[in-house]
Amino acid sequence: MIRGVDKNNPIIIFVHGGPGCSEIPYVRKYQDNLEEKFTIVHYDQRGTGKSYNFFQDYSELSPDLLVDDLIELTKYIQERFGKDKVLLAGHSFGSYLAMQAAAKVPENYIAYIGIGQVSNLPESELESLNYCVEEAAKVGNKEDIEKLQKIRSDVENGNNFVPRMYIQKYGGGARLIDESGDYLDGYITNREYNLLDIIRFNLGVKKSEEMIPELLKKPLTNLVTKLEIPCYFHMGQYDYKTSAKAAKNYFDSIVAPEKEFILYLEPAHYPQFEKEEKFDQWLLEKFSSSVIKHRD
Length: 296
Prior knowledge:
This protein is α/β, with parallel strands linked by helices. It has one domain: Rossmann fold, CATH 3.40.50.1820. It has 15 helices and 7 strands. It has helices spanning about 25-30, 65-80, 95-105, 120-140, 140-150, 150-155, 165-170, 180-190, 195-210, 210-215, 220-225, 245-255, 270-275, 275-285, 290-295, and strands at about 1-5, 10-15, 40, 85-90, 110-115, 230-235, 260-265. Strand 6, helix 12 (about 245-255) and strand 7 (about 260-265) form a beta-alpha-beta unit. Helix 1 (about 25-30) packs across helix 8, helix 4 packs antiparallel against helix 5 (about 140-150) and helix 14 (about 275-285) packs parallel to helix 15. It is globular and about 55 Å long. Its EC number is 3.4.11.5. It is an enzyme of class 3 (hydrolase). Keywords: Aminopeptidase, Cytoplasm, Hydrolase, Protease. This is prolyl aminopeptidase.
Protein backbone atom coordinates (compact mmCIF):
# COMPACT_ATOMS: atom_id res chain seq x y z
CA MET A 1 0.00 0.00 0.00
CA ILE A 2 1.43 3.37 -1.09
CA ARG A 3 0.01 6.61 0.31
CA GLY A 4 0.99 10.26 0.01
CA VAL A 5 0.11 13.54 -1.69
CA ASP A 6 3.23 14.30 -3.73
CA LYS A 7 5.28 11.63 -5.49
CA ASN A 8 8.31 13.92 -5.30
CA ASN A 9 8.36 13.70 -1.50
CA PRO A 10 10.91 11.43 0.20
CA ILE A 11 9.81 7.79 0.40
CA ILE A 12 9.66 5.71 3.57
CA ILE A 13 9.29 1.94 3.45
CA PHE A 14 7.83 0.64 6.71
CA VAL A 15 8.52 -3.02 7.53
CA HIS A 16 5.94 -4.49 9.90
CA GLY A 17 6.48 -6.64 12.96
CA GLY A 18 5.16 -9.95 14.15
CA PRO A 19 6.28 -12.23 12.76
CA GLY A 20 3.24 -11.98 10.54
CA CYS A 21 1.52 -8.88 11.95
CA SER A 22 0.68 -6.37 9.23
CA GLU A 23 0.53 -2.77 10.42
CA ILE A 24 -1.67 -1.47 7.62
CA PRO A 25 -4.70 -1.58 9.99
CA TYR A 26 -3.08 1.25 12.00
CA VAL A 27 -2.36 3.45 8.97
CA ARG A 28 -5.50 5.54 8.61
CA LYS A 29 -5.53 6.45 12.30
CA TYR A 30 -1.87 7.28 12.81
CA GLN A 31 -0.28 8.21 9.47
CA ASP A 32 -2.23 11.13 7.96
CA ASN A 33 0.20 13.86 9.00
CA LEU A 34 3.24 12.07 7.59
CA GLU A 35 1.55 11.62 4.23
CA GLU A 36 1.71 15.38 3.68
CA LYS A 37 5.51 15.32 3.58
CA PHE A 38 6.40 11.72 2.70
CA THR A 39 5.29 8.97 0.36
CA ILE A 40 4.78 5.99 2.66
CA VAL A 41 4.98 2.37 1.62
CA HIS A 42 3.50 -0.46 3.68
CA TYR A 43 3.37 -4.07 2.57
CA ASP A 44 2.23 -7.37 4.03
CA GLN A 45 5.23 -9.68 4.13
CA ARG A 46 5.22 -12.96 2.27
CA GLY A 47 2.79 -15.39 3.87
CA THR A 48 0.77 -12.94 5.93
CA GLY A 49 -2.19 -10.58 5.62
CA LYS A 50 -3.13 -9.79 2.04
CA SER A 51 0.03 -11.57 0.86
CA TYR A 52 -1.14 -14.90 2.26
CA ASN A 53 -2.15 -17.35 -0.48
CA PHE A 54 -4.34 -20.25 0.62
CA PHE A 55 -2.79 -22.52 -2.00
CA GLN A 56 0.88 -21.62 -1.64
CA ASP A 57 3.51 -23.76 0.08
CA TYR A 58 5.25 -21.72 2.78
CA SER A 59 7.50 -24.50 4.04
CA GLU A 60 10.58 -22.52 2.95
CA LEU A 61 9.51 -19.30 4.69
CA SER A 62 12.46 -17.80 6.54
CA PRO A 63 13.83 -14.44 7.70
CA ASP A 64 16.47 -14.62 4.95
CA LEU A 65 13.75 -14.93 2.32
CA LEU A 66 11.87 -11.98 3.80
CA VAL A 67 15.04 -9.87 3.73
CA ASP A 68 15.46 -10.70 0.05
CA ASP A 69 11.81 -9.77 -0.55
CA LEU A 70 12.39 -6.40 1.11
CA ILE A 71 15.41 -5.68 -1.06
CA GLU A 72 13.41 -6.53 -4.19
CA LEU A 73 10.53 -4.34 -3.02
CA THR A 74 12.98 -1.49 -2.49
CA LYS A 75 14.26 -1.81 -6.05
CA TYR A 76 10.70 -1.79 -7.37
CA ILE A 77 9.85 1.37 -5.43
CA GLN A 78 13.05 3.08 -6.56
CA GLU A 79 12.28 2.32 -10.20
CA ARG A 80 8.62 3.27 -9.95
CA PHE A 81 9.29 6.66 -8.38
CA GLY A 82 12.68 7.37 -9.93
CA LYS A 83 14.45 7.58 -6.57
CA ASP A 84 18.09 6.70 -5.99
CA LYS A 85 17.48 6.10 -2.29
CA VAL A 86 14.60 5.71 0.16
CA LEU A 87 14.22 5.76 3.92
CA LEU A 88 13.88 2.38 5.61
CA ALA A 89 11.97 1.91 8.88
CA GLY A 90 11.47 -1.40 10.66
CA HIS A 91 9.19 -1.99 13.64
CA SER A 92 9.75 -4.90 16.03
CA PHE A 93 10.31 -8.07 13.97
CA GLY A 94 10.42 -5.76 10.97
CA SER A 95 13.59 -4.21 12.40
CA TYR A 96 15.20 -7.67 12.36
CA LEU A 97 14.59 -7.78 8.60
CA ALA A 98 15.13 -4.12 7.74
CA MET A 99 18.45 -3.79 9.50
CA GLN A 100 19.82 -6.76 7.57
CA ALA A 101 18.62 -5.23 4.31
CA ALA A 102 20.26 -1.92 5.23
CA ALA A 103 23.53 -3.72 5.90
CA LYS A 104 23.38 -5.69 2.64
CA VAL A 105 22.49 -2.87 0.23
CA PRO A 106 23.24 0.44 1.99
CA GLU A 107 23.41 2.20 -1.37
CA ASN A 108 19.61 1.87 -1.63
CA TYR A 109 18.81 3.70 1.59
CA ILE A 110 19.11 7.22 2.99
CA ALA A 111 19.02 5.99 6.59
CA TYR A 112 17.78 3.18 8.80
CA ILE A 113 15.12 3.81 11.48
CA GLY A 114 14.47 1.10 14.05
CA ILE A 115 11.26 1.34 16.11
CA GLY A 116 10.77 -1.12 18.95
CA GLN A 117 14.15 -2.36 17.79
CA VAL A 118 15.00 -6.05 18.01
CA SER A 119 18.41 -6.70 19.55
CA ASN A 120 19.75 -9.76 21.36
CA LEU A 121 16.49 -11.66 21.78
CA PRO A 122 17.53 -13.95 24.66
CA GLU A 123 18.74 -10.88 26.58
CA SER A 124 15.59 -8.94 25.71
CA GLU A 125 13.28 -11.80 26.65
CA LEU A 126 14.93 -12.22 30.05
CA GLU A 127 14.38 -8.50 30.68
CA SER A 128 10.74 -9.00 29.74
CA LEU A 129 10.35 -12.02 32.00
CA ASN A 130 11.80 -10.22 35.00
CA TYR A 131 9.57 -7.22 34.36
CA CYS A 132 6.41 -9.34 34.18
CA VAL A 133 7.32 -11.23 37.36
CA GLU A 134 7.97 -7.96 39.20
CA GLU A 135 4.69 -6.43 38.02
CA ALA A 136 2.74 -9.59 38.90
CA ALA A 137 4.29 -9.51 42.38
CA LYS A 138 3.16 -5.90 42.86
CA VAL A 139 -0.47 -6.92 42.39
CA GLY A 140 -0.11 -10.24 44.18
CA ASN A 141 -0.84 -12.43 41.16
CA LYS A 142 0.78 -15.65 42.35
CA GLU A 143 -0.68 -17.68 39.47
CA ASP A 144 1.04 -15.53 36.84
CA ILE A 145 4.30 -15.59 38.78
CA GLU A 146 4.21 -19.38 38.95
CA LYS A 147 3.53 -19.74 35.22
CA LEU A 148 6.25 -17.27 34.31
CA GLN A 149 8.83 -18.88 36.57
CA LYS A 150 8.17 -22.23 34.91
CA ILE A 151 9.59 -20.92 31.63
CA ARG A 152 12.54 -19.09 33.20
CA SER A 153 15.15 -21.72 32.39
CA ASP A 154 14.02 -21.89 28.75
CA VAL A 155 14.09 -18.10 28.45
CA GLU A 156 17.52 -17.90 30.08
CA ASN A 157 18.82 -20.55 27.68
CA GLY A 158 17.42 -18.74 24.65
CA ASN A 159 14.87 -21.44 23.89
CA ASN A 160 11.61 -19.58 24.51
CA PHE A 161 9.77 -16.27 24.33
CA VAL A 162 7.77 -14.70 27.13
CA PRO A 163 4.08 -15.12 26.15
CA ARG A 164 2.92 -11.75 24.85
CA MET A 165 -0.32 -11.94 26.81
CA TYR A 166 1.67 -11.29 30.01
CA ILE A 167 3.66 -8.43 28.51
CA GLN A 168 0.46 -6.76 27.33
CA LYS A 169 -1.29 -7.44 30.63
CA TYR A 170 1.42 -5.68 32.62
CA GLY A 171 1.86 -2.63 30.39
CA GLY A 172 4.88 -3.65 28.35
CA GLY A 173 3.00 -3.70 25.05
CA ALA A 174 1.20 -0.37 24.72
CA ARG A 175 0.32 2.31 27.27
CA LEU A 176 -1.07 5.26 25.34
CA ILE A 177 -3.08 3.53 22.62
CA ASP A 178 -5.57 0.67 22.50
CA GLU A 179 -3.25 -1.82 20.82
CA SER A 180 -5.79 -4.57 20.16
CA GLY A 181 -8.82 -2.30 19.73
CA ASP A 182 -7.13 -0.05 17.17
CA TYR A 183 -5.90 -3.08 15.27
CA LEU A 184 -9.29 -4.76 15.13
CA ASP A 185 -10.97 -1.50 14.18
CA GLY A 186 -8.49 -1.08 11.34
CA TYR A 187 -9.25 -4.51 9.97
CA ILE A 188 -13.00 -3.95 10.14
CA THR A 189 -13.24 -0.36 8.90
CA ASN A 190 -10.29 0.15 6.52
CA ARG A 191 -11.22 -0.43 2.92
CA GLU A 192 -7.86 -2.09 2.29
CA TYR A 193 -9.11 -5.20 4.12
CA ASN A 194 -12.10 -7.51 4.03
CA LEU A 195 -13.30 -10.41 6.16
CA LEU A 196 -11.33 -12.92 4.10
CA ASP A 197 -8.18 -10.98 4.91
CA ILE A 198 -8.80 -11.56 8.62
CA ILE A 199 -8.66 -15.29 7.91
CA ARG A 200 -5.48 -14.75 5.90
CA PHE A 201 -4.02 -12.78 8.78
CA ASN A 202 -4.68 -15.50 11.37
CA LEU A 203 -3.30 -18.26 9.16
CA GLY A 204 -0.30 -16.12 8.28
CA VAL A 205 0.57 -15.36 11.89
CA LYS A 206 0.42 -19.04 12.77
CA LYS A 207 2.76 -19.91 9.91
CA SER A 208 5.10 -16.96 10.43
CA GLU A 209 5.57 -17.79 14.10
CA GLU A 210 7.36 -20.95 13.01
CA MET A 211 10.34 -18.66 12.35
CA ILE A 212 10.68 -17.71 16.02
CA PRO A 213 13.21 -20.44 16.94
CA GLU A 214 15.51 -19.11 14.21
CA LEU A 215 15.26 -15.59 15.62
CA LEU A 216 16.34 -16.87 19.02
CA LYS A 217 19.26 -18.81 17.59
CA LYS A 218 20.43 -16.01 15.28
CA PRO A 219 20.38 -12.77 17.29
CA LEU A 220 20.52 -9.61 15.21
CA THR A 221 23.45 -8.52 17.36
CA ASN A 222 25.50 -11.24 15.65
CA LEU A 223 24.16 -10.56 12.16
CA VAL A 224 24.62 -6.79 11.92
CA THR A 225 27.37 -4.95 13.77
CA LYS A 226 28.00 -2.13 11.29
CA LEU A 227 25.93 0.09 9.01
CA GLU A 228 27.24 2.38 6.29
CA ILE A 229 24.25 4.70 6.61
CA PRO A 230 22.83 6.75 9.51
CA CYS A 231 21.13 4.62 12.15
CA TYR A 232 18.35 5.73 14.51
CA PHE A 233 16.57 3.77 17.24
CA HIS A 234 13.19 4.87 18.64
CA MET A 235 12.33 3.04 21.86
CA GLY A 236 9.60 3.31 24.46
CA GLN A 237 10.88 3.19 28.03
CA TYR A 238 8.20 0.64 28.95
CA ASP A 239 8.73 -1.57 25.90
CA TYR A 240 9.05 -5.16 27.05
CA LYS A 241 8.24 -6.81 23.75
CA THR A 242 11.63 -5.55 22.65
CA SER A 243 13.51 -4.36 25.71
CA ALA A 244 14.73 -0.76 25.56
CA LYS A 245 17.72 -1.67 27.72
CA ALA A 246 18.77 -4.51 25.42
CA ALA A 247 18.25 -2.23 22.41
CA LYS A 248 20.49 0.45 23.96
CA ASN A 249 23.21 -2.12 24.58
CA TYR A 250 23.00 -3.11 20.93
CA PHE A 251 22.90 0.50 19.77
CA ASP A 252 26.08 1.31 21.69
CA SER A 253 27.92 -1.51 19.91
CA ILE A 254 26.89 -0.55 16.36
CA VAL A 255 29.36 1.23 14.11
CA ALA A 256 27.63 3.79 11.88
CA PRO A 257 28.51 7.18 10.34
CA GLU A 258 25.74 8.81 12.37
CA LYS A 259 23.49 7.35 15.03
CA GLU A 260 20.95 8.49 17.59
CA PHE A 261 18.99 6.70 20.32
CA ILE A 262 15.62 8.33 21.00
CA LEU A 263 13.95 7.19 24.22
CA TYR A 264 10.25 7.97 24.78
CA LEU A 265 9.54 8.15 28.50
CA GLU A 266 5.85 7.17 28.50
CA PRO A 267 5.29 4.71 25.61
CA ALA A 268 5.96 1.01 25.37
CA HIS A 269 6.29 -0.89 22.08
CA TYR A 270 4.64 1.65 19.75
CA PRO A 271 6.31 5.06 20.20
CA GLN A 272 5.47 5.97 16.60
CA PHE A 273 1.76 5.76 17.52
CA GLU A 274 1.78 6.40 21.27
CA LYS A 275 3.69 9.65 20.74
CA GLU A 276 2.67 10.21 17.14
CA GLU A 277 3.29 13.96 17.13
CA LYS A 278 6.80 13.67 18.56
CA PHE A 279 7.75 10.87 16.16
CA ASP A 280 6.35 12.73 13.15
CA GLN A 281 8.15 15.93 14.11
CA TRP A 282 11.45 14.05 14.40
CA LEU A 283 10.99 12.59 10.90
CA LEU A 284 10.13 15.99 9.44
CA GLU A 285 13.13 17.68 11.02
CA LYS A 286 15.48 14.95 9.84
CA PHE A 287 14.16 13.94 6.46
CA SER A 288 11.72 16.38 4.87
CA SER A 289 12.45 17.25 1.23
CA SER A 290 14.20 20.50 2.12
CA VAL A 291 16.44 18.81 4.69
CA ILE A 292 17.43 16.00 2.31
CA LYS A 293 18.22 18.49 -0.48
CA HIS A 294 20.40 20.45 1.94
CA ARG A 295 22.25 17.25 2.90
CA ASP A 296 22.88 16.41 -0.76
